[in-house]
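Recall that a protein's primary structure is simply its ordered list of amino acids. Everything else, from secondary elements to tertiary packing, is in principle encoded there. The following example makes that idea concrete.
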Amino acid sequence: MFRIQGFFNPYLSVGQSRLDTVLTISSDVQIVPNAGGRKIVGFVLDVSGSMGGEKLSQAKNAARRGIDMLSEDMWFFVVSFSGSADIVVKASPATAANKAFAHSAIQGLRASGSTSMSSGLKAAYHQVRSSGATMASVYFQTDGENGAEDSMHLTAVIEECKGVFHCDCRGIGTDWKPVELRTIASALLGTADAITDPAGLEEDLQAFLRRSMSKGISGAVLRIWSPKVVKLLTVKQMSPDIMDLMPVATRIDDKTLDVPLGAWGNEARDFQLAFELPAGAVDEEVLACRASVVYLEGGIETKATCDPIAVRWSGDDMLTTRISKEVAHYTGQKELADSIQEGLEAKAKGDEDKATRLLGRAAKLAQESGNEEVTRRLKKVVDVIDADAGTVRLKKADKAADMELELGGTRTVRRRTGVVGDVVGNI
């Protein structure tokens, strides 16, 4: 079902205490209707006053077309929110009759009021809980900033929703704050993105539904066991998006950390772990961690393990200077994301020289790694003169393009594993 493999250099030079490793986790889950328990998808729509006109029209159309995609073994619900939330369609099986009711109810939505994101998420939480579903995905969309009075409520509700459903967040237009959507999505193991043209909602929502329906196992966990003398510095998902997972991890005991991985289908994802090790002398060896994926199969807890992540100190430069190509690849993808973020920040502050340099570096890294998605978004913000040299020219200010790049800058591409020259940790 699951396979886990570690990539790292198993030799460190004396005096070196940091170890970086990439874990590739793959799953060959096959989707069997009803075998993995009930699945539910939720549509959470912003209907505040600013959503009037084309935005709400496209949002309603996208939701209706999305509901048509659902098979009858799926469940669904629809929530609308502004200053408060309403249950438009309660959690129900996706029968023809319930779909017809949903079409009519969604079509009757009107825009008015303020924006309270916590109310939309709280209503989704209750619908998922009441459905008895074992696997839940929510598509959350908004076009504005959250109300200032709702900030504290939002933090508390996000905490409550952790582990209940995964949530993809979409900002419509350009009058919303990326940090708010990124906060929700990161905590709920989803993605955040900009749909600056409302006409793009239908395609994006359908892609979300295809991903959701392809999942066959919920609640997988990466379990990391390390000796007390070893400190785990970071755990990040590196593909398909860069996501810091330390804030959602749970400490089981002083040696064990559980990191939620969410629902899985037939797919592979990469994760980067960094450890701080105790000082070691030549030929001394230390175990950094034992990693495993823990999941339920047929109601029984099952574990997939990888070889121990262990290293030895050496005085042989031929060994200690070898580079794991997986680690190097994702170090480059992280630099790409950082260059974009810092470049956009410099651009917003009017420092065009710094912005041009950083976004030029991003263009070079994106081309070298074959990251076509980030390259496409970059080209809306800069004219790429020479990608190999990192030479770009800033385009005329375009808030929509900047927002698309800011949220899409964490998209990564995977490197094919198992090729000659990879360093796999076995000593």
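Residues 92 and 196 are 31 Å apart (CA to CA). The domain at 39-213 is CATH 3.40.50.410 (Rossmann fold).
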